[in-house]
Amino acid sequence: MKSITFAVSKGGVGKSLITANVGAALAKKGKKVVLVEGDPNQPLQKILGLNFSSKNLKFEDIVQKDMEINRAVYNTDIDNLFLIPSGVSLQSYFEIDPVSFARKLSSLKTDFMLIDVPFPLGKAAFLSLGVCEYFIPILTEDEFVLCVESAIDTIRLGKYFLKSTPLGFILNRIKTPKKFTEEFVKDLEDLLEIPCITKIKEDLKVSKSYGEVGSKKAFLAYNKLRKSEFAEKIDGIATWLLTKIPKAEKKDAVKLLQEITKPSKL
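-> structure tokens emitted (266 positions)
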């Protein structure tokens, strides 16, 4: 299993959209993908058109009651794509049982696990980056300096403390492409010491797929907008993940979480 989280530097960067759509693209390429809901607003459920009742087991039930994780893995309308819903924020598992959180996710049998994380990161960073072998920072043109500063901090935390490998970064929701020249992107790669995986232009149709004000319903853009540049870029990310991922540095996520959750470490 390859475990990845798209690290958020600020709100509104499109991390849930990218998580859901990249997951779908990987699934379309024949890989089994499990998405893990970590945002209490449940954006993945909205994007995938899923609804769960109080009778459906959620990830917090699995962790609290020490149940098999497969009991909370649900089918989506996309073949090979599955979702683990959660009724609480990712950081809440720090109070519930962070070690069990890591142990349950590590027991998944899948090709890819993608964890969606809320903003701000806070303790959620320790759980998502602590469990995942890899992460990908997302930067946007809006508040770009803040994005870069946050990406640097996240890379330091993930790479050096939590042993999670930064694979590259994504420039998302680009409104003025002419600003992001090859030379500019190369300088950014040198600064962050990771490659730019892709640049994705702002697309109002894609933004509406989240179900925001002015749209009728959330939807999976990768499926509905198949001929769009966005879908092409998402395909490119999926292909990149299938061909460019190096060997993981992290050996034992459970042991790592046990270490970092000791009182002396926080």
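The longest strand covers residues 2-8.
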